[in-house]
Amino acid sequence: MRGVSKAVWAAVVIVVVIVLAAAALLMQKPTPPPAPPTPKYADTITIGTTDKISDLDPAMAYDFFTWEVFNNVMEGPFKYKPGTTDLEKGIITDYQVQEGGKVYILKLRTDLKFADGSPCNANTLKWSIERVARINGDPAWFVTDLVDKVDVLDNYTLKITLKSPLSFFPAILAVPTYFPIPPDKYPADKVSSDNTAGGVGPYRIVKFVRDQQLVLEANPYYYGTPPKTKTVVIKFYKDATTLRLALESGEIDIAWKTLNPTDINSLKTKPGIKVWEGPGSFIRYIVFNTKIPPFDNKLVRQALAAALDRNSIAQKVFLGTVDPLYSLIPNGMWGHIDAFKDKYGEANLDLAKQLLRQAGYSESNKLKVELWYTPSHYGDTEADVAALIKEAWEKTGMVEVTVKSAEWSTYLDLTRKGQLAVTLYGWYPDYMDPDDYTFPFLHTGSNRWLGNPYSDPEMDKMLEQAEVEPDQSKRVDLYKNIQIKLADDAPIVPIFQGKLYVASKDTVGGIVLDPLMLLRYYLIYKQVGS
């Protein structure tokens, strides 16, 4: 080693020092934390409900739960963004509106397949729409009242010509009557109530035992994002109590439609259970038949509207699980204003008495009212709702209310014949547009199902204009004026708007509640570990 120079030794020493320093720094650097475990999700989720499936055929089904199933096993030209009332394209890639809203050109996706792998195209959609019209079931009016003709322009382009312009037709195209179904699986001219063929949605039906069980499995041919959970089992229960017990025992993962208000509040305190709350779009209201005296007198209707105590009903009957409503257009929908609150306030007895006196009534000459309700169609709380309406009106000291009831079929028949002066009714939307909450109630001839209780040329004109107006800001103004006139004429008085509740195990996620009131099974998952 004597031959090694001092310079070399110095270089070696420097290198050693650097290496040792680097090693020391590395030893001082903290060890990174382990990566979080990857969550694991169950292959199957079980949902319980007290609802029933009517017909597994979009030409006949006209109820919310069956439509919920359709929205998971089928899909149409448009659909709603989860959690919103905003439309987005479904099985189409593009569309055009022509002739001022009278013609719609739909460009379909080229990768659409049914659950058996067979193709879906413009010819299929045309056949499905025209089949609805031929069968002429309950929801056929979505086609027969609106559509003039359907033409195939090419294999993936469809032209729909309407009878008259309709500004909200895309919302109609999100309704199951416009969902394509396989022509080789459904008969062309008759209803197929237990058909499990489905459509082009994220799930396919693998088992259906009526009133017992429905089993869905991820559709391998679906064009979009695969469902979060491979298999969804739906079990049907006879009542809300049995449904709640099934959740508490672990028999089901999710309890949906419909739990009692007391069950909802009780489940909120149960360990291991989560209660989900969201806006609902179903409404309840009072109908005055303006052809029957004394309800042909606007002052009488206004007085009863002013005396109504919505908050009392919401709290005492429903324990806060509904919200007071001051318009037929629900809270949260564009165009809504609190028209009745703006005009009458809430439980305004002074105004009610003033209006009753103007109408010729007094403490010694009371207004006689027969208030009708149906005891089970809207749930077992209906008698309590009627009792609180009676209480509110009689607080004026000038009204005497007799409460009467009839079972649903009789009730509906008497109403349609125009034989009931004051009735309680409810409404679940067909499509998410203010038109659906106004035209069927207030337009002359369109409210036959309520016994034609109201007719006004000015109201008719505004409703008709709002249907065809393409400018959204102008539609907002029209519906504002419609609601103001509704509150002034008071042929129909809103009471409350429902909320949506789902109870689940606390390991369940992906539940989205929106005004459509439909669960999207394909978003739901259950964590089982890591």
TrEMBL record:
Its main location: other. GO terms for molecular function: peptide transmembrane transporter activity. CDD domains: PBP2_NikA_DppA_OppA_like_20. The chain crosses the membrane at residues 7-27. One of its GO terms (biological process) is peptide transport. SUPFAM superfamilies: Periplasmic binding protein-like II. One of its GO terms (cellular component) is ATP-binding cassette (ABC) transporter complex. Keywords: Membrane, Signal, Transmembrane, Transmembrane helix, Transport. Residues 88-447 form the Solute-binding protein family domain. It is found in: Cell envelope. Gene3D superfamilies: Dipeptide-binding Protein, Domain 1, Dipeptide-binding Protein, Domain 3, Periplasmic binding protein-like II. Belongs to the bacterial solute-binding protein 5 family. PANTHER family: PERIPLASMIC BINDING COMPONENT OF ABC TRANSPORTER (PTHR30290), PERIPLASMIC OLIGOPEPTIDE-BINDING PROTEIN-RELATED (PTHR30290:SF10). This is Peptide ABC transporter substrate-binding protein. It comes from Candidatus Methanodesulfokora washburnensis.
